[in-house]
Amino acid sequence: MIKRIGQGLAASTFAIMLALPSAWAQAPQLEKFTLAGWSKPITEITHLLAEPDLGFFRDEGLALNYLPGAGGGDALRNLLSGQADVAFTDPGSFFAALDKGAELRAIYDIYPRNVFNVVTLASSGITRPADLKGRRIGVYSLSSGTRQNLQILLLQAGLTEDDVTIVVTGLLNFAPLIQGRVDATAATDTGLALARRRGLGDVHVIKVADHLNYSSDLFVVREPYYRQNKDTLRRFLAAYRRSAQWMIKEPERAAQLAVRHAIDGQDPGLNAEIITLRNRSSVSDLTREQGLGTLDPVSLQAAADAYFKLGLISREITVRAVIATDLLAGAGPEQED
Fold first, then answer.
1. Domains of the chain
2. pTM here?
3. Which has more pLDDT, 147 or 20?
4. Is 324 exposed, middle or buried (0-12, 13-18, 19+ CB in 10 A)?
5. What is the pLDDT of residue 58?
6. CB within 8 Å of 93: residues ≥ 6 apart
7. Residue 335 — very low, low, confident or very high, per pLDDT cuts 50/70/90?
8. How many CA within 13 A on the CB side of residue 141?
9. Half-sphere exposure of 220 (CA within 13 A, CB side)
């Protein structure tokens, strides 16, 4: 009797094993999809880094891979070399690549609010762009967004870099300001938040957005890929939009997940502050009407014109010819600010 039971169990087990490959073959296979970032895995992109926990891209049939970078130009180089499907980059790098002949298309406005600023000590008396004339101003590097956006700000006041002294400070740019080695420093909102937590005193903040509010970051793809893979791109953008909406609605959970997923996420309190800032920059009047990610050709054209006027690019760019507005159709405007 025992022998017969054992034989029956063995037969059943063998039958299950034979059936497993068929079941595996029927399971949906995820499509590999690589996003080239401008940064390392940092807190402000927790909604991407926490994909193993959240599964927004998995739900769209995509296996998301985040490829770290060192700036928007680096993200585009990884895209153009074929290492990535989409680049997370800034408008300046996008314009520069177009200027050099790259065939690219912007498909989503990640941060429609400009996040750059120029910070001065409250005691300096510098409160507006015109006050920067003759001053020493710190930037991260000569190829950074801090310098480009400083140039944009100066242009709005009728000034150029010839009217100021540019000082390369590196990422720790607030120390030279406190020490008096520069009169002002160009930074981002998150950089300022970190400096304040480290004891930065009273300051005045001149926001680039108050003078020319254009996107800080875009999703960009190669033109041939855009034409041939619209279904994949629609699924990617749908997943990203849901992940961004999730982080807007659940910033506290995102701050906790950043502790595990972000290289700079050790302080949940700072994580929450950074995430709040990025959530805020994800929303604009236009996205409230038409949904997260909606591209604004008017502000982007103004930015492209400013880059041309500054000599940062050598030819004029018609923005409407290099953006795609057909991949977000049907997505609603649900969001908060």
1. 31-113+215-321 (3.40.190.10), 116-210 (3.40.190.10)
2. 0.87
3. 147
4. buried
5. 98
6. 71, 72, 73, 75, 76
7. low
8. 5
9. 34
